[in-house]
Amino acid sequence: MNLAKLFSGGKSAVAPGVTLKSSGSTAQLLVSRELAGPLTVPLKQEPLRGPGQHAFTVRMPQKGVRTAVGFVEQPRAEYLTPDYAGSKGYASFGGAGFIYPAKSMSKQTYGEGDSVECVLCFDTRRVTFSVNGRLAGSTPYPYATGYPAISVFPGDLRCEIAFE
């Protein structure tokens, strides 16, 4: 995945049916039915590194697709669940409540209108997820770098992203 090309000019077509508009501490991701199959979209060009923590919040005013939000060690195209991406190199939280690679089920789920916060703490080596301010759960993250990312399926989706 060519990140320099992806982030040039502030707006780019990631793939047919996927557009990412990025501007400093905010971004917008648009997905349509034209997307050929599941895809993970990195939201930053440069990797995050420790010490300390990094966070982003995704608000989904329109969500008609399956999604997973989280962090990847390196940019990748595979959807962030074990069925597609195996069990290494990422931490994700899906809308149905599954947290990977911890293989845990949260009591929190998310859908249209919800906000999901993802916090990567390099000091504790964990990623923590919250939905509308309520803790959903966490999973180990033993990697030295992280890219905020959203995995999507084809369909109608609009995400508004804020980086902290």
UniProtKB/TrEMBL annotation:
Gene3D superfamilies: 2.60.120.920
Residue ranges of every copy of the B30.2/SPRY domain listed in the record: 1-164
Name of the molecule in the record: B30.2/SPRY domain-containing protein
Species name: Tetrabaena socialis
